[in-house]
Amino acid sequence: MKIAYDPQIFCAQTYGGISRYFCEIASRIAKEPGVQVSIAAPMHVNAYLLHVPRGIVSGFRAPESDRFQMHKGANYPRLVFRGLGLLTGDLMLRFMKPDIVHETYFSPYRLGGSRPRRVLTIYDMIHEKFPTSFSNADKTARYKAQAAARADHVICISESTRRDAIDILGLHPDKTSVIYLGFDLMNADGKSVGYKDFPVNAPFLLYVGNRGGYKNFQGLLEAYGASPKLNREYNLICFGGGAFNSDELETMRGLGLGSGQIMQLGGSDLLLAGLYQRASAFVYPSLYEGFGIPPLEAMSHDCPVVCSNTSSIPEVAGSACEYFDPADIESMRNAIERVVASDSLRKLLIEKGRERLKKFSWDRCAVETLDIYKKLAGTDK
Questions:
Q1: Whether residue 87 sits in one domain with residue 130
Q2: pLDDT in tens, 180-238
Q3: Tens of pLDDT along 232-271?
Q4: CB of 305 closer than 8 Å to CB of 281
Q5: 302: three-class secondary structure by DSSP
Q6: What is the residue-averaged pLDDT of the chain?
Q7: CA distances from 13 to 46, 65, 80, 151, 216 (A)
Q8: Domain boundaries, position 297
């Protein structure tokens, strides 16, 4: 059986969860007997492909590709490389004649011709449920609907996302399945940042990822600012998401929060692992998530998790975290205070987190994905 992954995400994303997902499963599925795996990625910009076993990637990295990341706005050379990569990738897929094409993102075009059976992964329905968080020029929702309509099977990364996809896109339930993601940090390898080099000394709460819109970082700021216990005894560390914008800085000033209380950091998986290991609690205030890997990452580093009780988050975190209503600032504040104030509760959450992690792994994700491919190709007998 020949399995191919199209070039979309690898021509658009230098780093990110989606491209990492495909690298993780492709690397594992390629080890299975009777399976030939190819990632068609000519002129790609993706860093993770450098770590994929030899023989899987067909293509090469575009010159100076670090300059052309997805979120740096309009850039003529980047768009040229991306267009050429998609065009060449389409021709490459047609030449490969795979049995299965797994589309790596949402396109209005059927890359690789009409012969292969098609699989699509839907990660969330954020564009559809929170349209005001995106510009009018964003066509993700439209392209997602087109890609889902032509797919022979749609994988969703949580049951919550599957229900939303069926409801919003009108998918037949039999055409869908749920396969959970793995969670381990790619480049941490069990190492830790030494205390001498660590950028934070005071006790702290940890927030990870982008901060806009449905991520509800504004709500976390308000809960933190409203709690004398939290804002006097703990710093708030934000990893990733870029520097604070003017609105965030204005909110902090309005809440009376000093510049030394809230920090924004970025860096490697190794630094993030160190933050998880040392944080008093990890807080996940999102209004909506298609899956939510950071709570699992936190659990894997024995960090107590405090998170929203909405969308897929309870499905993923189970009983291994302290929940709050993300629309209720007092609920969020109280939940965080309960965790940091109680050593016994922190210990219980850590123990439950270790047990919860057994449900999620990239190995399991790859095996279940391969089962879908076999069924579509008729080789599951």
A1: yes
A2: 999 876 444 555 555 556 777 789 999 999 998 899 999 999 999 999 999 999 999 99
A3: 999 999 999 999 999 999 999 999 998 789 999 988 888 8
A4: yes
A5: coil
A6: 90
A7: 6, 10, 15, 22, 24
A8: 195-359
CATH number at residue 296: 3.40.50.2000
Both 162 and 223 in a single domain?
no
Same domain, 355 and 365: no
92 domain-assigned: yes
Q: From edge to edge, which strands make up the β-sheet containing 305-308?
A: 262-265, 235-239, 204-208, 281-284, 305-308, 322-324
Question: Are the CB atoms for 102 and 91 separated by under 8 Å?
Answer: no
**CA gap 305, 353 in Å, rounded:** 8
Beta strands in 138-187 (DSSP E): 153-156, 176-178
Q: For residue 206, report the phi and psi dihedrals to the nearest 5 degrees.
A: -120, 135
Tell me what percent of the residues of the chain surpass a pLDDT of 90: 73
The type of residue at 156 is: C
Whether 188 maps to a domain, the answer reads no
pLDDT at 64 over 70: no
Same domain, 161 and 59: yes
Q: Is the pLDDT of residue 71 over 50?
A: no
Please provide the DSSP assignment of 83-97 as one string.
HHHHHHHHHHHHHH-
Q: Is the CB of residue 6 less than 8 Å from the CB of residue 38? A: no
Percent of all residues in the chain with a pLDDT value above 70, rounded to a whole number: 91
Tokens standing for residue 194: 């030494």
CA 332: distance to chain centroid? Answer: 23
Q: How confident is the model at residue 12 (pLDDT cuts 50, 70, 90)?
A: confident
Same domain, 136 and 236: no
**pTM for this predicted structure:** 0.86
Judge if 178 and 306 occupy the same domain.
Answer: no
What per-residue confidence (pLDDT) applies to 260? 85
Q: Are 156 and 233 in a shared domain?
A: no
Structurally, the chain folds into a number of domains equal to: 2
Please report whether residue 177 resides in a domain: yes
CA gyration radius, the chain: 21
- Which residue, 304, 243, 249, 309, is CA-closest to 276? 304
